[in-house]
Amino acid sequence: MYDEKIEELIREKKYVQLRDELSEMNSVDVADILSSMDIHIALILFRMLPKDVAVEVFSEFSGDMRKELIGLITDKEIKDIVDELYFDVRVDVIEEMPANIVKKILRNTKEDERKLINQFLKYPQDSAGSLMTIEYVELKKEMAVKEAMKHIKETGLDKETVYTCYVTGKNRKLEGIVSLRKLVISEEDEIIENIFDEDVIYVSTHDDQETVAGIFKRYGFLALPVVDNENRLTGIITVDDIMEVIDQETTEDFQKMAAMSPSEEPYLETNTFTLAKHRIIWLLVLMISATFTGGIIRRYEDLLQSAVLLTAFIPMLMDTGGNAGSQSSTLIIRGLALGDIKLRDSWRIIWKEFKISIIVGITLAFANFLRIYFLEKVDFAVALTVSVTLFATVVVSKIIGGILPIVAKKVNIDPAIMAGPLITTIVDAISLIVYFSMASWILGL
Amino acid sequence: MYDEKIEELIREKKYVQLRDELSEMNSVDVADILSSMDIHIALILFRMLPKDVAVEVFSEFSGDMRKELIGLITDKEIKDIVDELYFDVRVDVIEEMPANIVKKILRNTKEDERKLINQFLKYPQDSAGSLMTIEYVELKKEMAVKEAMKHIKETGLDKETVYTCYVTGKNRKLEGIVSLRKLVISEEDEIIENIFDEDVIYVSTHDDQETVAGIFKRYGFLALPVVDNENRLTGIITVDDIMEVIDQETTEDFQKMAAMSPSEEPYLETNTFTLAKHRIIWLLVLMISATFTGGIIRRYEDLLQSAVLLTAFIPMLMDTGGNAGSQSSTLIIRGLALGDIKLRDSWRIIWKEFKISIIVGITLAFANFLRIYFLEKVDFAVALTVSVTLFATVVVSKIIGGILPIVAKKVNIDPAIMAGPLITTIVDAISLIVYFSMASWILGL
């Protein structure tokens, strides 16, 4: 995203000019540029940045970069930065840091804030509580619009968002919300009580981040209030943080669907052993499951001995079955994840997959027959056996691929596990049984 | 999302009370409730809603529901609703409707607006132009904050967002942006020129929606300006519309990775033949590719004839290879899509996959040897052949799974195509060649 001008300034070590350029840029880009430089030069530049910019840039650094930088700057600098961070980022930083640095940071923190930080650190990972921040605008029902606007003007700079304001009552009980747009277009002496929205949608601190993401997507909110057991406002979650959650949840689905244990770390930042560990378990499980398939073949060894040619079509049958099943399961898994497909649609889905499988099965079986009978000059009986098996395999695979994710969802297993790899293993066994039965019957072996 | 109270009111046909309840609810939920009712009752309720609520609810309906409803209401009602819709939704509605209704809608539209609608209809699907809307707040550099706030107060109700305002110069040239937050916290007589942000990030009308989504994710923006070739502001895109785009792009990746032609329609709304068509092409291609695998087996028919037992391990070898390769390709495809992995990382990735494959390969080969030698009591030589092949297959699969998505990206093919199904087909052939070579060598056949 950054251009030649910046690169040239870096090459020519014109740091003052560079500082001026960087100060004007979006902090995301600045963080990117500094991260790609030698850490000592990055440190020089970082120290030259205006304080407010430096804090923003620090928020955008990766965990590794933050750690590296904190190792190099003074305690005073650490404190100055950490104090200015938004509360959610501050908690993240503290969570990532080694104990001795955390001690340093907390030593200078006031008692009540330290308590609050500790409370936030306790929220389960992936919960609404772990995503929220405390910098929101709090208003009272009795306020006039003018008063509210004055309050926002005075405190707005330090809030994560000012565009949705939260109306609270006794003990910070959440009573409603009012948007800044509404405040701006209302008359100055209007009372909040008359213009605020009481039917407010909120989540609770222990709700899962997937639920939270779902609400943002459904309603297109910019921010969402988070309440505790007693309906007291404890924080807010903003839409920019949710975009990351959406990507993260989808990545987890991708990983599970490719038979891996999910991980939140980016690929290049994860070490080899961890990556290997995440992959081995499922591969082992699936490998051992494939024993059944081997067992089936061994049971029909005599049949294969007298018609070895049949072996040649096993890979094609198994692969096509696996692919056909994966197609169905992928669509259903994704539909369930997005909420396009509900459990009450189960029978409609199975019926639909059945109809599709008939069309797909006939087309493939026909194409296959033409190819192996006319092009490969295979026996009519063998060609027929293979094609009929292919048809049956496609139908069975698609139905299994359609049913398994739904069953998983029903019994509260993540449907993403019922994807390609598992479906393939199951379909392999079934297609072989069909194949050998057909062969014994049609070929009379 | 709606509760028993609403269901009871529906059952008891207390429509007036129901109307009052619905008017207080979020329009997304109201649209959901009406869509699940008998269309004639939905129509009655829809007509009872306050006009502004009705328009919002209409915006939230699915295309099918909109069509159904438009078929039942009068031309005047259609016009009243369409006139009040945000411009991007209006264009969508016009795009979806049959020609005779479009004519009706456009007949009463002013000349310049009709031109604008036609221009918007021409933007390619999935382009920034097709996502944007024209309801934004436009300010001038010379304005004082007070003037700007007055302008927002007067026009803000009809804008898609008021939280980012766009500063334009002569000929609507985009000169910068200023946030409502900045306006609110600034002094009333401050001039926009002194507080607005000139380094503004924007997209152009023909940029792809994936690019747009990437920018929203990277910077956490609430809205993004769209300019034409001459840098004139033509519209804005808001973050709520981008959430849908992100889901849509991910779904496309899922579909491609499961060997389907991508489709934007939700599963249940797509008819059987279309779904079947999207699946057949890739299945056919992959089925025919599997011919090579069959060819390899036929070449080694004699070898198999003398050791039919070898056949029993073919499925396990092929499946494990396919799964190992899919794991690698899935992680790389996802990393490329999210921008976590860049093309310049290619060698690091291949080296990493190689190291991982050694660890995974040794573990699986060892486990497999123990299982088939000690549990299945297979010959030492056969067990060795199978295990060595397994090791080689895992290593080759993971490297192929790591390389192919990167190569695809380099030659501008969507990396998502290089996923499980294709990798499996390639790996099948390789693993069989290794298997039979090993068998000839170790077993001396």
Strand order of the largest sheet of chain A: 1-2-3
CATH fold category name of the largest domain in chain A: Tetracycline Repressor, domain 2
State the end-to-end CA separation of chain A. Answer: 67 Å
The total beta strand count of chain A reads 6
Helix fraction of chain A, binned, reads: 55-70%
How would the global form of chain A be characterised? Answer: elongated
Q: What is the arithmetic mean of pLDDT of chain A?
A: 86
**How many separate domains of chain A?**
3
What is the strand content of chain A?
Answer: 5-15%
| Count of individual helical segments of chain A | 22
Tell me about the biggest sheet of chain A? 3 strands, mixed
Radius of gyration of chain A: 30 Å
Proper CATH architecture of the largest domain in chain A: Orthogonal Bundle
Structural class call of chain A reads: mainly alpha
Name given to the CATH homologous superfamily of the largest domain in chain A: SLC41 divalent cation transporters, integral membrane domain
Q: Biggest interface, which chains?
A: A-B, 111 and 110 residues
